[in-house]
Write a structure and sequence with these properties.
Structural class: mainly alpha
Largest sheet: none
Mean pLDDT: 81
Radius of gyration: 20 Å
Number of strands: 0
CATH class: Mainly Alpha
Order of helices and strands: HHHHHHHHHHHHHHHH
Oligomer: single chain
Distance between the termini: 27 Å
Low-confidence stretches: 400-405
CATH topology: Growth Hormone, Chain: A
Shape: globular
Length: 405
């Protein structure tokens, strides 16, 4: 039984990796290609509006769907929708309008969050209950970190493909690869994660105070990242520093890969400062440290202190601390989630995550266009501070133990 669960976990992880690779490559392709066509930062941000908005909807209803029909089916539906989204971008260039791209991105957003919700929920369903919370923390960190490392590779692949074979051929290569993954998944992924009792539609909204608070903290945490990372940073590197596609894609890819690797090591890193598993106090203390980093970068940029060095070193520091914060949150939601119908709780949580990305993405284009990167960094620090304050209301270890008994 345990060996079978491991095999299914590896298959789920492989699906997640393949999807993430195409998702990262597609995002970089869209940002750089439309910047190359002369679109403004705000216009580029709007291309991802439906992507993030439908991510919110998908996480809210996807958890319910996963509990009703099984996580294997929601994962395969996600892969299929990504295939369709990529196919939509193969139309002739004159038909590749902003509205059409937004619609393709809407499908991609639905696909991404169905895939992610399924993968994260599957951990709770597949890990034996007798392995303990420590094992759960390590498995969550491994899945989340490896996914982000692959997303970084996707950023690099997207920039590389755009520079070498162009936009349409790059989309075609990813489309064919993902079709093969979908076929393999349909043939091998078994039923998992289906709730033992009939799930009612009204259960999509979490009734757990801990999950509600953690979800709100997650919203501000990811808005803090995307408010300067999604649009403002790539455009700043291209406009202000004169970097080409290779440099922008390579740098951001390297950052995300490093960020993912640190996420996988988060259990080891947090253990250096505390022998206990993460709780609300842990989330608060790491958020406090992270909130200082954007302010330092903003100060250095405001005083013209070697912009390229300030951005690169500052972003590396931000990535390291953000990775630990994200891993702590990812562990807490899986730990808090109810084992029966786990996708309901995790879907609600990632709905908040998607809302944070949407808010950050729109602000990234809007604030950068009118006020610049420094303003984006100040807002980022403020949002992290809010996430930290919310985290102070999360359960401590003794409260978690009591609620589980």
């Amino acid at each position: 039984m345990f060996d079978s669960a491991i095999k299914q976990y590896l298959l789920v992880t492989g699906n997640y990796w393949a999807f993430t690779l195409t998702d990262g490559a597609l995002r970089m392709l869209v940002v750089l290609y439309f910047h190359q066509l002369g679109y403004s930062p705000l216009s580029i941000a709007l291309l991802f509006l439906f992507y993030e908005f439908f991510g919110i909807v998908t996480n809210l209803y996807g958890g319910y769907l996963g509990a009703r029909i099984g996580l294997n089916r929601t994962m395969n539906i996600g892969l299929l929708l990504q295939v369709i989204a990529l196919a939509m971008l193969l139309v002739p260039s004159e038909l590749l309008t902003v509205v059409w791209v937004m619609l393709a991105q809407a499908l991609s957003g639905i696909a991404k969050d169905l895939n992610k919700m399924s993968a994260k929920s599957a951990i709770k369903a597949l890990i034996p209950t007798n392995t303990g919370e420590s094992r759960l923390y390590h498995w969550v960190a491994m899945l989340t970190g490896s996914k982000n490392a692959l997303k970084g590779v996707g950023f690099f692949v997207g920039a590389l493909l755009l520079s070498t074979i162009g936009f349409r051929l790059a989309i075609l290569v990813m489309l064919l690869g993902l079709i093969l993954v979908l076929i393999f998944s349909l043939c091998n992924l078994q039923s998992l994660g289906k709730a033992k009792h009939k799930v009612k539609f009204k259960q999509i909204l979490s009734k757990s105070p801990a999950i509600n608070r953690l979800s709100l903290a997650r919203l501000f945490l990811f808005a803090a990242r995307d408010v300067w990372f999604v649009v403002a940073l790539p455009v700043f590197l291209a406009q202000q520093l004169g970097w080409d596609h290779y440099q922008v894609g390579g740098f951001i890819a390297s950052w995300v890969i490093g960020y993912g690797l640190i996420q996988t090591m988060a259990p080891t890193i947090t253990a250096l400062f505390s022998t206990q598993l993460p709780d609300g106090k842990t989330a608060w203390s790491w958020a406090l440290v992270l909130s200082v980093v954007p302010l330092i970068i903003a100060y250095l940029l405001a005083h013209d202190m070697v912009m390229a060095l300030s951005i690169t070193v500052g972003l590396c520091c931000f990535g390291a601390f953000f990775a630990i914060n994200s891993s702590i949150h990812s562990y807490l939601i899986v730990s808090y989630a109810d084992s029966n119908g786990v996708s309901l709780d995790i879907g609600f949580y990632y709905m908040a995550n998607a809302a944070g990305r949407l808010m950050g993405t729109v602000l990234s284009g809007l604030v950068y266009q009118y006020y610049g990167l420094i303003a984006c960094l100040v807002i980022s620090s403020s949002f992290i501070g809010i996430a930290g304050l919310i985290s102070t209301t999360l359960p401590r270890h003794n409260e978690i133990k009591t609620s589980q008994e």
